[in-house]
Amino acid sequence: MGTAADQSDRVVEVWIPSYPAVPLFLTEVRELARAFEREHPGYRIEIVECSSYESLPEEVHRAAQRGHRPAIVSYLFTSTQLARDMRTHAGEPLFMPVQRAIGGRTEILGHPVVIDDLVPAARAYYTSGDELFALPHLTSTTLLYTNNSLLSKSGVREVPRTWSELTAACRKLAGRTGVAGPGVTWPNAGWIFQQAVAQQGAVLADPDNGRTVRAQQVQLDSEEMLAFVHWWQQLHRSGYYHYSGVRAIGDRTGDAWERNYRAFAEQRVAFVLSTSVEADRMVDAGRQSGFEVTASRMPHNGEVPYAGNVVGGDALWLSDGLDEATRDGALAFMQYLLSAEHAARRHKTTRFMPVTRSSVDLLDSEGWFEASPQHRAALDQLDASDGSYAARGALLGDLAGLHDVVTQAMDDVLACGADPDRRFAEASSQAQRQLDDYNADCLGERPGPAGPRRFAVN
């Protein structure tokens, strides 16, 4: 909790989850809150640290049912549809679209409005129709990290750009001196499935990935999903893919990604797919063990046109029903957090991507990307998006439940030899039942007040 506010202060309460992996994040936000207060006497920015991003949605829900609403809440991207469906104790939407609250203004309390400066892919994820409903402040994507030293020993001259190129590189790596095992790894995680489907221009849900109206039909057995699953299965059967055996779901999420990292750091694989936030960690692992690391775009299916990759990270949500002065204080603080200087600083302290064009330009002018080229790959990847509904990612109720279903299906394929087509058809039916239940809750088709009843994030 922040310090107690003066009785004359107008309090803007900001709920932000604790991220142990990025300890400087909350410290920095608190420092910026104090700086904002110095510029705006009469406002108090109250930073409330919530226990975790996993429990935050339910904590907010319980507060809302008591009649309490924080001015700003930071939600993980998997909670996006959930946040849109949150309700007050009176049954009204808890949050209002940020763009609607801004109302065409170019500055608020003297702070320039940044929504038109956002990196396009980040803005697109949090946009429905033409309206931005939340303000992304922590953004990431999935990248390929390559052990160049092992690659050189195998005779592979270029980092793979497509699935077939990655398969060929793994084939050359197999059995070479210095390679202790398979060529590539990535976690069995829902985000990876989202990326692979989006890259191929396909949607996870109809209609339109949930971006024009509420998503009603999931597609876990689409041609594009099965193309990815079959390729993954073949890599595994050929001995080219290392499976940790851990699904990235619930309290095992961190373990799955950590095992992913260790396989690469210990040179048990030459390639790893992981978040762009890990770029420095991957490069440092190579430096400590004497191998060179390159970060590059996630390989895609070269048989179809590339559409784009999906973002991860967090966004800031603005509560509805605030008085005008409190609302403008909240909006101004959100713009302040994303000024070029502050967004660039946040990138350096958290390693999440710089989320505005002006912050990218500032970092470029400082020579940051020349000195740390591993951070350019994520920007280049998101800039290649075609802006389609597929590339923007799915807005889907109970996305965490879908992740649970799809990762279990893939575990059955890899570890138990299940038939991919049959198993993913079953998974699609199961995920559909979960989505139907979620929608029924939110649309008031069940006894009790309308609104979500499942608040899982992973």
UniProtKB/TrEMBL annotation:
Pfam family, one: SBP_bac_8
Keywords of this entry: Signal, Transport
Superkingdom of the organism of origin: Bacteria
Cell location: Cell envelope
InterPro entries hit by this protein: Bact_solute-bd_prot1 (IPR050490), SBP (IPR006059)
Keyword Zinc included in the entry's annotation: no
PANTHER family in the cross-refs: ARABINOSE-BINDING PROTEIN-RELATED, SN-GLYCEROL-3-PHOSPHATE-BINDING PERIPLASMIC PROTEIN UGPB
Entry similarity comment: Belongs to the bacterial solute-binding protein 1 family.
Protein known as: Extracellular solute-binding protein
